[in-house]
Amino acid sequence: MRLAGGGPLADCQCPYTQIWNIPRDWPAWRPFFSWATRYAWEQQSFARALEFHLKRNPAGVVHVADPVLAYRLSLKSRALGYELIYKDGLLLGPAWWKQFRWVQVLAPHYRDDAVAQGINVDHCFVIPHMVDPDRFHPVADKLSARRKVLGHPIPPEAMVIVAAGDFSVGSKKRLDWIVSEVQKLDRGFPVHLVLAGQASPADVSSMRALCAPLGDRVHLRPNTPPADMVALYQSADIMAHAALREPFGIALIEGMACGVPVIGHAGHAVTGWIIGEGGATVDMTLSGALASLVNNWLANPNLVADLGHAARERALAYFSPAAVVPLYKQLYGQVCPD
After folding, report:
1. What's this model's pTM, rounded to 2 decimal places?
2. What is the pLDDT of residues 18-35, one digit of tens each?
């Protein structure tokens, strides 16, 4: 197993090669080209350099996720003697990935959708993202975890709701919806909301204004380093996720692995499959639906605890390395049986 990427990679468990490319955030061209144009050039330059690398370092299987890169490398696969696997992680669907011989999708729904369209799925494998349960795990002392995240103690009986995503206006993570629903909660319950995710100074200012009615019961953690996300999940009683549709949602399985029950959107089959018995789904377009469910949970702390245990168990059963690595081995064994 060898990895190749466009940037540096620390703590890699196998040989890694950094491949030359023109990065999308190269300062010299950011003022002149759109993000989409810069992204396309980044992938095209990376693909050309990777082709040269594969000529010098042959591989039996090449597994990629970017659609531009997959298309470019598929044109060279016969000449360079490798089998290409495309992972569809951008919701492009079978209309795009049916052109590739070997395909990885992230949930059963995507394979079922292809079947419904009459597309052959003999070489389509369902392999979800995975989470490290040794890193993302529950803690016995939740109060200490909260002090670490919030910087000060809150009432021991308080319930903490966490949500992760982009702070920007119009973000598909829809943190603004979660804020509006938390404002509808029964004021008799001491509830604190923690929001973490990417944000510019302007985004933080806008979010702070939106959250003003919650006073000191809301805690903004913009641009939280990935290493600190574990403590954030461990501090929570409930995780709310209002995205209406996304390819997977890694934050969901990270929270679940930490023993946090998740509430997601009922209108996206993939979200419901990920959560399973580790939480619940509601219509995140229906005003008051999230607030109503959270109110029920707040009145039943034992139910929240039971759902947290179930969330951890589902993360272990479906999204841990013990569950996912054999699926990769099965895929590679079929692609390259020798």
Report:
1. 0.92
2. 999 999 888 888 788 888
Residues in CB range of 160: below 8 A, 6 or more apart: 146, 154, 191, 192, 193, 194, 235, 236, 237, 238
110 with 39, same domain?
Answer: yes
Residue 91 or residue 275, greater confidence: 275
The neighbouring-strand residues paired with 279 are 262
The answer to whether residue 254 sits within a structural domain is: yes
The reply to whether 154 and 292 lie within a common domain is yes
Same domain for 160 and 115? no
Domain that holds residue 312: 142-319
Residue 105 main-chain phi, psi, to 5 deg: -120, 160
Asked if the model's pLDDT at residue 227 lies above 90, the reply is no
Residue 136 lies in a domain: no
Percent of the chain with pLDDT over 70: 100
